[in-house]
Amino acid sequence: MGTPLITLLDASLLGRGSREAFEDESGLRLNFADLEMRSNRWAAWLRQKGIQPGDRLAFFLANRAEVIDLWLACVKSGVIVVPVNILYREREIHHILAETRPAAVVTAGKDAHFFAGARILEVEESAREAGQIPVSSRPPLPREEDPVAALIFTSGTTGVAKGAVLTHGNFAVNGSSLVQTWKFTENDRYLAALPLFHVHGLANGLHCWLGSGCHLRLLERFQAARAEEEFLRYRPTVFFGVPTMYVRLLELPAEAARKIGACLRLAVSGSAPLSPAIHAEFRKKFGTTLLERYGMTETLMNTSHPYDGERRPGTVGPALPHVRIAIRDLQGDEVRDGEEGELYVKGPNVCRGYWNREDATRGAFVDGWFRTGDMGVRSPDGYITLQGRRSDLIISGGFNIYPREIEEFLVTLPGIREAAVVGVADRVRGELPVAYVVSEGPLDENALKEALGRSLASFKCPRAFVRVDHLPRTALGKVQKHLLPPHKP
Ligand code: MLC
Ligand code: AMP
Fold first, then answer.
1. Is the same domain home to 213 and 323?
2. Ligand 1 mean position, distance from CA 399 (Å)
3. Is the pLDDT of residue 1 over 60?
4. Within this chain, do residues 416 and 336 fall inside the same structural domain, yes or no?
5. Are residues 204 and 318 in the same domain?
6. Gap from CA of 447 to ligand 2 centroid (Å)
7. Model pTM greater than 0.90?
8. What is the dihedral of CA 182, 183, 188, 190, to 10 degrees?
9. Tens digits of residue pLDDT in 79-138
10. How far is Cα 50 from Cα 53, in angstroms, rounded to an integer?
């Protein structure tokens, strides 16, 4: 049974009504009572549009106040949110629409063309409509015990994007656990720069804020060139980021870094590996120690460095209090401390499975334990070190890239016979994708990039294309990526 998510949020929405809650880059300022009222109006607007509990509502929006309004309205009404990464393009978007069949998509007018065939609710117009609805009361609570709150797309270990079915209970337990573990109080100031279409920004960011009643400043996106000004003016006590953001912050002048670090009690890093070198440089320059945590779309957060204890670089800390982690060998037997294996996770944080994909769901769980695909080792004092993945997932700037998706697309282009995509190390983004291709004639890189850019998110576009005569394969035909010639930029 799950805790109702709204209970966690009500401590602020109802309990701290007059307290300042929110600001954004346009100068909009809201208190918690405003957020309560706005989301009630949006919930009434959803009903006016005929969107019922259990229906899916997709949004394709850069960070803005309406994303929060919509999230809260859907949580209150039992409508299932499908957040779509705004960097996605036709191919990825069509797949998500086909899988979830949303009742409508909320998006900006300029992006409506990506959603041909779907019912589009333009965001500005929708906000005007919702703002005029004279209601102040909430919709009736969803009747289900633990309703589905969101379907968030991720490729799991297989490469085909699937919607992780996350319930109100999953979000509630994750949010309340992080508020406690990270010692959030209503006096915190959280600078929110992560996109709200992924769980790092949505499940952790919004729920730590509303679960604690602190203040949030929402940025449309993280921009390194504006970071100094943003941090110095807002003086956040809390920041959540992917390692790329911390690498960018290291470019700030020493004096600014010292001032920022003096306010920042909690700087959380996650979604991709953080090197011990960056951990050390950040500490030296900002005077604050990064706290690393490990999570997944399907499980929300699994581990975290302790707030008061040792934030051991290179590790992701021990399991969070509500999470059980087992490390198992290929036979499924638990390994001893110090031995490598695959991480399996169990707990009220774990999603129900994948939307309409029973086979994939069955494949992802073993006796109720979720297979993460992440390899790791646990020290005798419980700290977990991640050591890579079972699959060849590439993580670039905190966004996931599945080589197979790009390889399958590349071979549909004229003249390309075979393709293999690998990640190469990059100081700023962690990894960058590079494509090795067997082609019939010379490669036209510009034409390839244009074709990729039309169909796939920009971060998936290979930074280089290397022409090879053939791909190294095993006797069974599997590509041996480790035998590809090294890429020299
Ligand atoms: C990145 N880009 C964006 C964007 N973020 N465009 C619009 N809106 C955004 N929010 C595009 C840029 O246009 C550019 O494309 C490229 O990405 C890199 O942008 P940049 O300006 O050069 O920024 P950079 O300094 O490299 O930083 C990128 C970044 C971004 C860190 C801001 O990668 C980012 O927001 N990452 C967060 C990913 C995230 O939230 N992951 C959580 C997943 S949940 P071009 O075409 O010029 O290259 C998960 C579970 C868990 O994994 O554990 O949390
Ligand atoms: P996603 O599918 O976007 O939810 O990405 C989840 C994956 O990101 C995990 O399975 C890990 O491989 C990776 N990840 C998340 N947090 C960390 C971290 N702190 N260090 C290394 N990898 C991480």
1. no
2. 7
3. no
4. no
5. no
6. 32
7. yes
8. 10
9. 999 999 999 999 999 999 999 999 999 999 999 999 999 999 999 999 999 999 997 799
10. 10
